Each structure stands twice: as C-alpha cells, then as structure tokens.
Amino acid sequence: QVRLVxxxxxxxxxxxxxxxxxxxxxxxxxxxxMGWFRQAPGKEREFxxxxxxxxxxxxxxxxxxxxxxxxxxxAKNTVYLRMNSLKPEDTAVYYxxxxxxGGSSRWLLSRPxxxxxxxxxxxxxxxx
Length: 128
Description:
Layout: E1 2-7, E2 10-13, E3 18-26, E4 33-39, E5 46-51, E6 58-60, E7 68-73, E8 78-83, E9 92-99, H1 106-109, E10 117-118, E11 122-127
Parallel strand pairs: 2-11
Antiparallel strand pairs: 1-3, 3-8, 4-5, 4-9, 5-6, 7-8, 9-10, 9-11
C-alpha cells in the first residue's frame, strides 16, 4: 500500500498557474505508475494525467494538453502536476493515485479502477 498526501491547491484567476504535489510513502514509489484525476461538483471523477513508473511515458486528457505537465521526483517520492493557463472549467478537487500496474497502456492508466491508492484530494478553484 502507498500513502499519498496531495497539496498545492488554491484559488487562482483564469490564466494563472498552480503546481500540485503528491507525496508518497509506503510501497516502493519508483515501481508505481501515478495518475492525477479530478472531480467537479455533480460530475464523475475524470482522468487528467498519468506518468509511468520510470517517468518516461506520460498521458494527458485532451482538455489539458499543452497546459498541464505531470512529472515525478523519485528521490523525493513525489509526483507533481504543473497547471498553466488555468480555466474556470478546471475547477475541481484534484486527486493523485498510485497503481502497481507496470505497463504503459493509456487506456488502463486513464481508468480510476486501475489505481488502488488515492490521496485525500486538494481543491483547485479558478475564477473568471
């Protein structure tokens, strides 16, 4: 099991930037692919980005491509989500998640069911 602690959310104006962090402890972090998901009020949790265990492969949902960047620092056991050019529609609770899946299937890494460990979530609010 991996314990995940999300942080870095806040209130920002449209066009602004935020960097979310997810600190991991427990199972070897370097062997876990990681993902970021978000959930807006009244909506289902949706995939935002994922990064392979090695960090060499990343995936993004279309609506954030070119604006968000997922990265990981294995030495610090931390995964990041840098969010630029934020829009009001990015407003949601953001969750990081870890999976023991060692492959690189975008389909699997974009599914919440692939992930067994979740952070507590951090609120991101983008004002217009």
